[in-house]
């Protein structure tokens, strides 16, 4: 019964009945006896349903409801909505992580018309975790749109290699372009979970580029352990990179923007895991970290709005990167489970984030702040 109807029923009967009788008259019949007994024992706030109240003519439906015992209606109960503690995936050691290459054939000169507001000309974007995976592709989206980019990563060699291959890909896709129109892409070492490392890195970026206008935080990782057996040092490391790293980087960039009294745009890479609980792989600390990233963006969006600094989140769903490919190779069942839960039925490719990051980084989204842009094939809407 809707609250308004409940209030009307109470008002209509209140003059004629005792308060307790009035409440029971307005409640659904099934709850009334429980309420009456709780009033007798003085326990006002419980109305526990009794398992024995079964409909003899409808045993199947009862077994599928809270009247039934766990598993009574079949092994399928909860099958698509539970974690499986046997799924365990550790984030690989640095030297075992696969490299990524820039996307080919997605940039280059084109004559299709588009809004000028999407241009990133005259911007300098810091992309953390930009040496590979989603970060590298988003860095490429920003330089293809006109920005100079600072790739910030803990892996020095990979960052340097990626900076060079981004510039090289741009040259190849824009033959004959003037030298001063080739984006400047630099590589910088940083452990984003360390305040001193972050400070030094931002100083180095400003020294090399003169300014920073944008930040994209893609440094992050996930692993799978069931909550009870998750080693504490690994949880701290995970939160250190995903949460502290996002916080420290954004504060340092915001300070620089405020010092220059310049507007800017910050994009955090969260995850759909910040809004839903993935199944079947257990990953409670990662999910909590990404929920923290999402709400950090909302909080900083409010705190820094006065300075013209926008803070938004992109929450990707399952994306097919070199790393997720390896996880799927090791756990073939996961691919079917994951894609069966995505309305579009497909995992995303890293390049599916190129438009989203350019939109949120550019003036095309000037009135968008604190938003969570889900790029997940519809996963989180079902
Ligand atoms: N791949 C997906 O399906 C997916 C889905 C949703 C969200 N995400 C998120 O996207 C982001 C990027 O994921 P990815 O798949 O590209 O991962 P990736 O492992 O391919 O790349 C992450 C990069 O971050 C760097 N990094 C790690 N720790 C760092 C640290 N302490 N300081 C600086 N750099 C560090 C790594 O060296 C690496 O280059 C992560 O935050 C991840 O949680 C990924």
TrEMBL record:
Its BP terms in the Gene Ontology are: mannitol metabolic process
Q: Positions of the region Disordered?
A: 48-77
EC main class here is oxidoreductase
UniProt-listed Pfam families: adh_short_C2 (PF13561)
Q: Name one GO molecular function term.
A: oxidoreductase activity, acting on NAD(P)H, oxygen as acceptor
Query: What are the record keywords, sorted?
Result: NADP, Oxidoreductase
The lineage's top-level taxon is Eukaryota
Name the InterPro entries on file.
NAD(P)-bd_dom_sf, Sc_DH/Rdtase_CS, SDR_fam
According to its UniProt record, the EC number is 1.1.1.138
The UniProt entry's sequence similarity note says: Belongs to the short-chain dehydrogenases/reductases (SDR) family.
Protein name per UniProt: NADP-dependent mannitol dehydrogenase
